[in-house]
Amino acid sequence: MTDRQTHDERGRIRISGFDSDRVRDREPMSDWTDESSGETVGRWRRGLRKFKRNRSAMGALVIVVLMSLAALFARPIEVFGVVVQPFSLAPYDPTTILYLGVDPSVEVYDPPSWQYPMGVDGSGRDLFSRLLVGGRYSLSIGFIVVGLTASFGLIYGSISGYYGGNVDELMMRIVDTIFAFPGLILALIIVAILGGGYWQLVLAFSLFGWAGYGRLVRGEVLKIKENEYVMAAKALGARDRSVVFRHIAPNAMPPLIVLASLNIGSVVIGVAALGFLGLGLDPSSAEWGTMLNATRSTLIQGPGGQIPWWATVYPGGAIFIFVMSMNMIGDGINDALDAQQTGVGRGGED
Amino acid sequence: MSLQRFILKRTLSIIPIMFGVSVITFGMFHLTPGDPVTQLVALNPDVTAAEEAALRERWGLSGPVWEQYLDWISNVLVGDFGQELQTGREVSDIVWTRLPETVALGLFGWAFALIIAIPAGVYAAVNKDQLGDTVSRFLALSGISIPNFWLGLMLILIFSLYLGLFPVLAPSRSSLISPEMLRYLILPGITIGTASAASIMRVMRTSMTEELNKEYVTAARAKGLPERTVILKHVLRNSLISVVTLAATLTASIVAGSVVVEVVFNWPGLGREFIDAINQREINVVMAITLFTGFFVILANLVADIVYAALDPRIRYD
After folding, report:
1. Which residue in A174, A264, A299 has the most chain B C-beta atoms within 10 A of its own C-beta, making it the best mutation to test that interface?
2. Residue A147 has pLDDT above 90, yes or no
3. How many CB atoms neighbour CB B56 within 10 A?
4. Which parts of A54-182 fold into alpha helices (H)?
5. Residue A79 forms beta bridges with which residues?
6. pTM here?
7. How many CB pairs under 8 A join A and B?
């Protein structure tokens, strides 16, 4: 557009007002161009580039991926009798009691050794195997819950922020009410009512867990809906639904993603806390928090002679490392997506 | 808006929320299949249908749900939470005897968090991007990531079992306010305060860094104030406002944390009572503590908002 022709020749009359080329090439009324419709992708890409340069976040991502893979390949997975995942990283089944059949010399709370690298737990099971398999519960519940709550919160917050007025007032009072309870307390009550179990845990953390996303998205929508493109979409006759979900919601995504990534860690801690309190999964399951619960009384009462530190240090350490990595990733995403906004302001440094 | 009007308006706004909290508390227990009588009957198969109906009548579990709710809430409003089903003790007595223990623990946790986090946050912001900053940021990240029950177990393992510095568990409890209690309070207090300390430290660092870039800081330095005065009198005061906004959230997290930490340390507060009540299906106790928690968090939010509005008049014009 810099080499636009100007028709200023003297002595001749030229009709230039309806030159179709000029109409096509002239300065657009708005900033929208075909290329800029791809800008969202460009912004995400810029964020990704920034994230890749963040060494601690990338390291944390590697840890999370490794832990997820370890949980996935820990024991074979069967779906309706068909083995879909034949690998087995864990040397023993998490429920195998070693001194029954496998190795009679093993005793309860054997310290770590070459054969049992993380020692033996209070029921004579291999801790290393249990730890690997245990990741399946915490990690999958964490991701499922965050997926469900973030999606619902996105819808809820978009509706509340977009319609405003009494609808918004009512919807936000509901969110305020949920915020009056600490999430763990609500989850505890739900599990107490429904009983323990995998899907009960998912429900316990999802049923009220969306409120934070709802509030965040509503705030974003209030800001976004002041933009001209929303007004333009409305003026063009777009239905409310398509304005909300095609124009508003996608722009509320960056803060939502940051919150979601930071939230996975708190859900994992919550699941483990319920397990630790004996209210999550079956007491014999290899979930990390449940494993800690089994060691608590032994640790506190101080068994004669030796303290089985390994039964406490390893499962809790696994939760800690996973949550810490997730939080580092969340911080990294936060920096990356923030930088995208200021980066545009600075004329884009990349 | 004057501060008085703001306080009045904000105080009135908690009424619908308190109503909502009572509805959620009641609804969770009464809209689900299996009220306490059904559960009790399932445990004792030799209860007759007539006895079951009588029990239902006595515990106010007959009639439509909304009637039950009105019964319950009108009792609650005069401080009557009903009796413990198995022992017949008044639930409000149980709450009042357990409450001081939890308050002591929570206050110690708060104090620990503030004492650690504010100096650490200031230090990190002043020495931004230097070694001390990196180390304290790493510690803060660990603090928000560590599960509190595991931290509690690790503290017991290291300080009680290996080093023998603290008693593992209180063998017999003396009165709450005594020097001896402090020894029992330190480990659980640290456990409950760590997550809050980490959050406050992170917020302090961010808001201090932001404040340090503002022009009044340059002005204060330019007029020759010693750096110490600039940081402590000007920047710190403004950054502390952001901690106030965090206070309500952290209070909620300390309340939730008390449930877990009290179980780890066998601390006889409301949190452990809550877990015991859940395990024994003492519905009145669970409901009372749930409601109490909700009201407490609402009040904490109210106080935080009012303090915030008093410190920063701009907030009142919303």
Report:
1. A299
2. yes
3. 17
4. 55-72, 127-163, 165-179
5. A82
6. 0.83
7. 134
Q: Is B302 on the interface with A (CB under 8 A)?
A: no
CATH entry 1.10.3720.10 includes domain A43-74+87-339: yes
If we measure between CA atoms, which residue out of A65, A53, A125, A156 comes closest to residue A285? A125
CATH class of this structure's domain B95-311? mainly alpha
Give me the amino acid identity at B57: E
**Which H/E stretch holds residue A295?**
helix A288-301
Helix, strand, or coil here: A6? coil
The verdict on B39 touching A (C-beta cutoff 8 Å) is no
Is residue A263 within 8 A of residue A212, CB to CB? The reply is yes
Q: State how far Cα A269 lies from the chain centre.
A: 13
* N- to C-terminal Cα separation, chain A: 23
Tokens 């995208």, located at residue: A340
Percent of chain B with pLDDT over 90: 11
Place of tokens 């303090």: B307
Assess whether pLDDT exceeds 80 at residue A210.
yes
Do A269 and A323 meet the contact criterion of CB atoms below 8 Å apart?
yes
For residues B254 and B199, give the distance between their C-alpha atoms in angstroms, rounded to a whole number: 12
Tokens of A21: 């080329």
Number of residues in chain B: 318
Taking only residues 311 to 350 of chain A, the set having a beta carbon closer than 8 angstroms to any beta carbon of chain B reads: 312-313, 316-317, 319-320, 323-324, 326-328, 331
ipTM above 0.90, yes or no: no
CB contact under 8 A, B293 and A189: no
How far is residue B14's CA from residue B268's CA, in Å, rounded to a whole number? 31
pLDDT in tens, A81-112: 777 777 777 777 777 776 677 677 767 666 77
**B256-284 residue pLDDT tens:** 888 899 888 888 888 888 988 888 878 88
In order, the DSSP letters of B200-251 are HHHHHHHHHHHHHTSHHHHHHHHTT--HHHIIIIIIHHHHHHHHHHHHHHHH
Provide the residue ranges of all domains of chain B, joining segments of one domain with +.
18-77, 95-311
CB within 8 Å: B32 and A194: yes
A161 within 8 A of A220, measured Cβ to Cβ: yes
